[in-house]
Amino acid sequence: MFAFVARQPILTSQKDVYAYELLFRDGKAGTYPEPASDKVKALAEQFNPLGLDDLSGEKTSFINFSPEIIISRFPTTLNPDQVVVELSGLTSQPPGLSEALKHIKQMGFRLALDDPMMLNQQTDLLNLADIVKVDASRLTVNHIEERIGRYKDADVSLIANNVASQSLFTDCLQAGFDYFQGYFFAQPESRLSRKLPASKMNLVDLIGESASEEFNLDRINQIIERDAALSFLLLKFINNPAINKRYQISSLKHALTYMGEVEIKKFIALLSVTQMGDDKPLELIHMSLVRAKFFDLLSQQRKQHTNPPIGFLVGLFSLLDALLDQDMPNILKQLPLTDEVNDALLGKSNEFNHYLVLVRAFEGALWSNVVKQSKALETDQKTLHALFNQAIVWGNSVRNTLSSHFPNARG
């Protein structure tokens, strides 16, 4: 369906995923793209096009539409149970827009208005809205409360947009917002502890084994056998159809026979990170998974050293500061990682600095940065999109495994 698209999570007050906003590279200001020519469709199909299920899983998709598409070319294939129609950037109300929106609502779609300050005199549109998004990025607490006061009697849900810090999330939560969009959850929270708890030491040992050039199966078995939950989850990961479609794996030794040591190293690292962040929003771990797979695929594309799987490890560990609420230099002093992984996580690797800028561009729909990094890495932009799309699908599948394992995992 779509080859070139970014997604941004919208979270509840408990930091569960409520929905994803989809931002399209081929649409003006991220809107749903105009119907493509046959040539463009054929080109997109070569680069791992994603459907809404791939992008948003079972969550709702927020999609921005231009007034022109809403009035005359609204796609009839979209499911109103899956999609919220979002309207943003209006400076005037085109003729026919209100009638078209009423028709779309009769079809069962919900309507979101993005920061509709310009709609003060256009109350018919505001009266149609189910959801209002407010840009919270430049507002003080008092201003936030003033800004949303006019909507409190309008029977709408409120989304605070561009929430970039934990403190702003707290302010918006106290002000009465229902949902929150922005990467505040990927920022460390302030905590006094400067050391990893003793309960995590098994995980630290596994992280060290995943980054080692040698592979000591007996050593890994000893670590995992200390914790029955680790053993169970490792086997559940390895038997995930997205990872292993051919064999039912019954032990780590059995897995090594069929998968090889590089893949096993990836999964003991993955296992460690998911357990390290078991008190964090699942979306944060999900981002780590997508980054890990993307960096791994890109490393292979660029013929980088793959044993140990440096790209996978750097992507997977790139959000450790948020997972552990500590700064990265302090974390790395406590983990037995190689100098190459440490340097990359500290921003000292030119190669992986490009990867980090690139993945943030995909996460934030910063398409000009994708262009720049494509040139810097001498890799075609469409290939980069295809690799990222593969990473999203892989991350979704592994996330499903996590959701069923952690009883307290937040969706």
Description of the molecule:
There is one protein chain. The chain has helices spanning 38-45, 52-56, 67-72, 97-106, 123-128, 141-149, 166-175, 201-210, 217-225, 228-238, 252-259, 261-276, 282-301, 310-317, 320-324, 328-334, 339-345, 350-364, 367-376, 381-405, and strands at residues 5-12, 17-24, 60-64, 83-87, 110-114, 131-135, 157-161, 179-181. With 411 residues, it is of the alpha/beta class. A hairpin with a 4-residue loop joins strand 1 (5-12) and strand 2. The protein has an 8-stranded mixed barrel with strand order 1-2-3-4-5-6-7-8.
Strand order of the largest sheet: 1-2-3-4-5-6-7-8
Low-confidence stretches: none
- Classify the fold: give the CATH topology of the largest domain: Hypothetical protein af1432
How does the overall form come out from the CA principal axes? globular
Strand element count: 8
- SS-based class: alpha/beta
Instruction: Quickly give the CATH architecture of the largest domain.
Output: Orthogonal Bundle
End-to-end span in angstroms? Answer: 25 Å
- What would you report as the Rg, rounded to the nearest angstrom? 23 Å
Question: What count of structural domains?
Answer: 2
Order of helices and strands: EEHHEHEHEHEHEHEHHHHHHHHHHHHH
Structure summary:
This protein has helices spanning 38-45, 52-56, 67-72, 97-106, 123-128, 141-149, 166-175, 201-210, 217-225, 228-238, 252-259, 261-276, 282-301, 310-317, 320-324, 328-334, 339-345, 350-364, 367-376, 381-405, and strands at residues 5-12, 17-24, 60-64, 83-87, 110-114, 131-135, 157-161, 179-181. It has 411 residues and is α/β, with parallel strands linked by helices. Helix 8 runs antiparallel to helix 12, helix 11 (252-259) packs across helix 12 (261-276) and helix 12 packs parallel to helix 14.
